[in-house]
User: What shape does this take?
Amino acid sequence: MANEIGSTLVNSLTNSTFDIGNMSKVLAEADVATKRASLERNTEKVNTELSGLKYLETNLNAFQTYVTDLTSPDLFRQLSAESSNDAIVTATAQSSASAGVYQIESKQLAQTHSVVLAQTFASPESLIADTGNFEFTVNGQTHTITLDASNGTVEGLKQYINNNDLGVNASVVNDGTGYRMMLSSQVSGAAGEIVFAAGNAAGLPDGSDPASYTVTSEAKDAVLELNGLEISSSTNTFDNVVEGIQFQLNSASIGTVNTLTVNPATDVVEDTIRSFVDVYNQLQTILDELGSYDASSLTEEELATGEYEFYGDLAGNSVLRTVRDQVKSSMSGAIDELDPSFNALAFAGLSFDREGTLNIDETVFQGVLQNNLDSVASLFSKGGTSDSALVSFIDASDKTVSGNYTIDVTQAATKGEWTFSPVPGGTFDVSVDGSTTVTLNAPTDTSDLQSYALEVMNTINNNSDIAAEGARVSAYVNASNQIVLQSDRYGVNSSINMNLTNVGTASATGLNVDGTITTESGGVLSLGAYADTEDGRKVNISDFAVANDGDESMRGLSFEVLGNPGTSVSFGFAQGFASRIQETIDDFFTNETGLISQRMDSLINKTDEFEDKSKEIDARYERMELKYRLQFSMLQSIMSSAQATRDQLTAQFSNNNN
Assistant: This one.
């Protein structure tokens, strides 16, 4: 800066004039140069650290996504269903299912009833009849169409049927000899059979005249034999046969027995754990690079790439060291609430080597996946243990505290059900689980009670209004030869409301589970107050619940009670390693107390301060530049005056010499 000022002065004096603008800028910049250089160094240092922390945040969040998968108990509850012949039968299994092997014979696929009128017509506009009725019953509902000029043609009747939701679809086909009307049921299975009344208008199907129509597709239920038990369904999907398993018939093959095996989806668990290990090791590499002091091993080309953009940005940074230590600490040691025989990662075959790399012992890992998956689940995820098979853990929130609880059940959840003696024919009004009330036809044949019960069940379940509201029923014959009609739902929202001709009206509602849960401190909380509205067997304790002694430890705990154990149940909850890691990483970014969030906020505040200081330096530079301009202007004026005097004297002396 001194050389620049000197050069400027020399050049200006040599020319006997000052470059006022340039000199003012040079001197003003010299005045603020030290402060500006210091500020730029500090700004660069802060921005480098802030960029490094943002990069660290991005990678911790990416790692967290893999951790989150392992925190969920549902990951370890997943089941796979494998068929010996997918072309015949397939299945899907939910977590509520049980592992097992099923022998299935697909005897018959479901079919939709379809008929075609025997009468042919010259065109779609041909008149069928302009008076009379067309009456038919489908899916338990009877429909009567009064024919007139608006719907008495082939096309007019088709449009009327399709526009009025009568349970069938109508179409007009040309079979080469003329136009005929085809009717197809909107539901498959035996319950979808279209039954025509006697005495329908001429030209239309008549129940007393089989020659008035041709059946092109019979109404048939799908039939499968499951471990020797024959079961039918109105569709090719069977989802109420074995809890948690949905069977799908894809083709019929009488005499062929197919094996369907339901097992834990260990391959999904294995892939998730392997991905977790890989990403953890990648994270360690990233931490190493962020904290590296020496970039000599990298070429200039590598340093210029985005891959090494943040190399060394957090060298010597205490936040980086703490993050590394706390993440590893959350994966080390043992979980006291778990069985000592399986409470550390080493029991699952995972361990750290001297360099801090997480490795997998394949022999141990494969062994526990195949033989001890429940313990692996407890090791990683939020988990609960119970000394009763009737009480099982579902989930927990970040509010739930690890510990032991006592559960006492005073009331097991029940379904709404109605027991009645069958009567032939008539109608019944029914509402299931508070659904829309509909009027349906009762079966006419009571000689086979099992068939009667099945027909009532299918009639209700195939009703579009009831099905649209997610309600379903089951029906069976009890030891007293009565029909038991039962909602598929548990709890107070499970209900059967029914009015059957010659039997009367009945209303039955289920009950929610009830009882108490006692915390380690002795606090007591009611189960019934937190029973699930959709399934009364489940208890979902609120994140704001407080026991009578003020204990909050059970907040967010969810579990299922499948019956009344009759005695107190010991129930334990523990945070697995994945949950511990998740909590550790979340704590880094807590708004007010998080290690990383606090440091980033501090750095952002510093950048704001530096910006203010930069403005102050710029303002001082402008003031100094103006000051120097004024001073140099005065000097310029003096020098100009001196030059004028000099020129005058020179001229005068020159004249005298002459």
